[in-house]
Amino acid sequence: MPYRIDTVEGRSRLKPRPPPYWQKLTTGCHLGFRKMSKDSAGSWIVQTYDSDSNKQTRKSLGRLDHLPAHQRFDAAKKLADAWFEHIGRGGSIKVITVRAACENYVNRLEASDANTNAHDTKLRFKRWVYDDKIAAVALTKLTRKAVEDWRNRLAQTPVLTNPHSDKTKSRARAPSSLNRDMAALRAALNSAYDHGDVTTDVSWRMALRAIRNADTRRDAYLDRKQRAALIENADKDLAKFLRCLSLVPLRPGALASLTVESLNSQLSVLTVGKDKTGQDRKIKLPPSTATFFSTLAKDKLPAAPLLCRADGKAWDKDSWKKPIKAAATSAGLESITAYTLRHSVITDLVTHGLDLLTVAQLSGTSVAMIEKHYGHYRAEHAAKALAGLAL
To answer: Are 303 and 260 in contact (CB under 8 A)?
Structure first.
């Protein structure tokens, strides 16, 4: 006996039964309606059949009883069509949420030994994604508007100046900060796209595009005499940390993470493992620098921090921030941070004529970033060299 599931009257006439009532939409694609009791609103199911692989796949669409009864078939058909398109493009059968995509991405970073990047990315997701309503959205239902709304909410969220000690002080989110947080979500969604969890990136490709020229050039610079003055006005343990920052172009966090076994005293080679790049790199140290690093490692266990505070703990940004500010004040310097030393060392390497590729390798960044932030120094260097050719 014929039956219909595309009308309210047709569905009301159906006899309750466990097997669904099916309606063919296209070849191999069916929309089903299951009615378990006379007064039940019923539930909707989608089914696909691949004749090449002889595989049948079903997915529940739910009751859809949040909609008026006359709208449920059209809504179910729309969801079914989207599912058929997703499967037809080779998409994964399992539907995952934005949160799951982020968690999967962190797991992939950890599996690739990019633990530092994984830890930083995980913290960003916890702060800006997991507690946001976008986290629960299925990737197959993610829209450009939903992503743009998330971006706007993030842009309007102030940044705590020190989330670990004072949660009352905040500042407006800078474009560069917004770029970094968007980059984490963009990477997670791109990874999900690459792994077939979603078959199009149209919802975030433009919505998460980075703000151009958001990063300003790093113009704070300390010459050698100023660096020496800063070190002289610092406590003994901090002075060692600052001296190391003045000898090698490392990020402060990467330097703080070095252990005794990071240094090969025999070969004068320093292995930098924890950094933004997510992979180890080796730096050949000149004799005087190697000697100083060797004194730091003396009588310490291999796993011990190469640089530590008076209490034996490794340095971190919360423990060096105020002491550096105090040392800078004593030395008559202003607006000094740990990163200022890294910038100053890179600036010296560039202005002294070291090629940008080598500077990038030593610094653990790309040639493009060195060119962007320090290329103007090379231009000045070149101008002086040309001036020497004048007749």
So the answer is: yes
Which residues, including other chains, have CB under 8 Å from residue 27's CB and lie 6 or more apart? none
Residue 296 to residues 224, 244, 291, 300: CA-CA distances in angstroms? 22, 10, 9, 8
CA distance 243 to 232: 10
Task: Please report, as a single letter, which amino acid is at residue 365.
Answer: T
Q: Note the pLDDT tens digit of each residue in 102-121.
A: 999 999 888 876 666 788 89
Q: Which residue has the tokens 């070849």?
A: 27
Assess if CATH 1.10.443.10 describes domain 224-387: yes
- Return the domain boundaries, the chain: 8-88, 98-194, 224-387
- Residue whose C-alpha is closest to residue 34's, from 1, 67, 61: 61
C-alpha distances in angstroms, 317 versus 2, 70, 164, 337, 356?
72, 60, 10, 10, 28
Q: Which of 35, 29, 133 lies closest to 82 in space, CA to CA?
A: 29
Regarding pTM above 0.70, the answer is no
Continuous segment of H or E residues that includes residue 215: none
| CB 182, CB 124: distance < 8 Å | no
Which pLDDT band, with edges at 50, 70 and 90, does 173 fall under?
A: confident
pLDDT tens string 284-303: 999 999 999 999 999 999 99
Determine the Cα–Cα distance for residues 132 and 207; give it in Å rounded to an integer: 17
Q: State the Cα–Cα distance between residues 260 and 189, nearest whole angstrom.
A: 38
Three-state secondary structure call for residue 371: helix
Sign of CA dihedral 193, 194, 199, 201: positive
**Could you give phi then psi for residue 277, rounded to 5 degrees?**
-70, -20
Q: Which two tokens stand for residue 108?
A: 């992939």
Distances (CA, A) of 350 to 79, 371, 376: 57, 10, 10
**How many Å apart are CA 387 and CA 1, to the nearest integer?**
96
Q: Is there a contact between 115 and 280 (Cβ–Cβ < 8 Å)?
A: no
Q: How many helices (H) and strands (E) does the chain have?
A: 14, 9
Residues 6+ apart with CB under 8 A from 203: 142, 143, 144, 146, 147
